[in-house]
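Subject: for your reference before the review

Hello V.,

The reviewers asked for a structural picture of the protein, and I figured it would be easier to keep everything in one thread rather than splitting it across files. Below is the amino acid sequence we used in the manuscript, unchanged from the supplementary table.
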Amino acid sequence: MTKRINNSSFILILVSMLLSVSCNRDVVFTDFFEIPEKTWSLSDIPSFEVPINDTLNSNNIWLMIRTGSDYPYRNIYLFVTASTPGGITITDTLQYDLADEKGNWYGKGFGNIHALNLPYKTNVYFPLKGNYMFKIQHGMRIENLNGVYDIGLKVEKIRK
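And here is what came back from the structure prediction:
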């Protein structure tokens, strides 16, 4: 017995697909770094080279992290170093909550994996065309941070 899709369901599916495709047009850059053996060492500093051609529109920059239930803390400290094509370097110290006080993880999850988009910078104008470098290091007080699967960076153009 085959299942038929009525017209309203078909239109809803079609609109959902079009919206998901159109939303991706605003993504300037996205990439992930897989953490070896799901243990992030202080010496592992993922770097992301972001090519920028648009100096007129503003952007939001997101950090993305995937952790497992074996991640031992409910927060994370990060050091993010951003470098411009002109050689200017800025380092930010950031702290994010990954779970609430009761241990309920934020973000999306499947099984014991939890994915979370973390706002890094909003309404950013890149002043120069060229490659911007972003380096991310964990800032926890231990050498090897267990339960971190991936760390990523996403740059999205803001529509006016």
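For the response letter, the relevant points are probably these. The two ends are 48 Å apart (CA to CA). The longest strand covers residues 113-124.

Happy to draft the paragraph if you're swamped.

O.
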